[in-house]
Amino acid sequence: MSFANWIERARELGTDQAEIDAAIDAEQRLKVAAIIAREVLTSPSEAAVLAVFSEVCAGATLGTTIHPRQRPTLH
Description:
Elements: H1 3-12, H2 17-40, H3 46-62
């Protein structure tokens, strides 16, 4: 099932819009994390993408801009 289909289905089932919005936000942050990880590393591992995702989420919570940078934990 695609993410778009999941959203449609969730709306059909009456899922709270705040939950759907949170899922959309998380999916967008994960996409951003994957893009950043690919820019910094040639072939990032899942762990590397998740580490960047964590940083993106932390930055979004604080309202700060996240800049790609190499970190020892991503190698």
